[in-house]
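Moderator note: this is an archived Q&A kept for reference. The question asked for a predicted structure of one protein chain; the sequence and the answer are reproduced below.
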Amino acid sequence: MSVIANSFVGMYALIDCNNFYVSCERLFNPQYLSKPVVVLSNNDGCVVSRSDEAKRLGIPMGAPAYQYQPLFKKHNVKVFSSNYNLYADMSQRVMNILQRYTPDFEVYSIDESFLEFKGFEHFYELDTIGRQIKQDLKKSLGIPVCVGMAPTKALAKVANKIAKKFPDQLNGVYLLDTDQKRIKALKWLSIEEVWGIGRRLAARLRSLNINTAYDFTQLSDNYVKKEFSIVELRLKKELLGESVLRLEDIKTKQSIATTRSFERDEREYEFVKERVATFAISCAEKLRKQNSDAHLLSVLIQTNPQKETMQYRRTVTLQLPYGSNSNLTLCNYAIKALDMIFREGYAYKRAGVIVTSFTQASEKQLNLFDEQDYRHNNLMKAIDRLNRKMGEPKIKLGIQDLDRTWKMRQEHLSKNFTTNINDLIQIDLNIA
């Protein structure tokens, strides 16, 4: 039985930026408004963001860029490399504005946030707030969003999908606040599109003739719990209008990975060694940002699976003798791990370092017999401070290539308009 609310006490709003990466690029390149635009992943590998015009050309999410080059050329599709500095800065600006509307706030992803409205019912109409949020973000930042509102987080996701699907009728804002609306929405929503239903689970549900979100809510609690799990049972309750998922604080990452493809296939051990060392140091910097120590470190290397050459792929994981976020310690163990798996004669295309099993760096378990050098803490703080002050990392280990910065293939990279004053729009004052 549904327990959907009739007022907006405890109502949730999901604010989702439309085609976020593309929208960020268009802000500073308005000549591409109303034209097909795509943004590619790291190393210009595949499509990770599409404008509506690109979607209408049939370009799917995840499309390999090299396979779609003829189509890009035929339809004059503008291609951008991922510019995560720009996207992260614009995301923070979006979140700063959203936090003005309510103190109950959750950043769900770089382009999505949940807002909870409690106790506002005597002062505002909720759909009015939704329209204000949309107008505020468009006017202040130029970022288009859709707003879905409902009594639970899962239903807010559904409401947002409806707002996106029917832009002309709803103008990007949809309030799902009655049981009649809820049932109609769930009968419209296919099971694959339900928040939290993955591809494999959707296929299994389809095999059971459960084709829509509404079909899923008709299953008994006992059946869902027995055949699936408590996670799916919570989802069912949410779709019925019973709020069981609360806002969450920003979570500390449970694993950190830095993996990259090389610009070309590489056979030289020294090249791979330098890359692995740099990746380990990148992981150490990220660990320090979230005040974590890692206890497990993995290194992976692999050849190019797209080529008909000898194939080799190995990963090895080492237990560190103590938790650490030191560049020196992680680099040393990453090289030890690489030495265990590196084989001469192969052309390597990719390598990576992954750290896991975290503890709080500020709550170290001291041991009289470990060989940890606690002077690393102050050394890392000094390195981080200098690198922040001087921009591009200036303090590196000797094992790293001092001239090499972060080299990814980014043939279509835009400028960092919001974070680098040297990248601001140039104005030609020599007007005849």
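Archived answer notes: The first helix runs from residue 20 to 28.
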